[in-house]
Amino acid sequence: MTKIELNKLNRIGNRIFTNPTLGKSFKPSRINMISGNTLRGFHLINKLKPGSSKILDKFHETHYEDIFNALKKIKSEKDLKIFSEKYRNILLNLLRKNIKHEQLKSFNKTRKVLDLYFEHLVALDSRFTKTEREKLSGLLFLPLDSWIIKNDFVFSSSERKELKLNMNYTFSCIRTLEHYYEIQNYLKENLKGLEHRIYFDLFWKSQYKNTNAKNLIELHFRKIK
Question: How far apart are CA 40 and CA 32, in angstroms?
Answer without folding.
Answer: 16
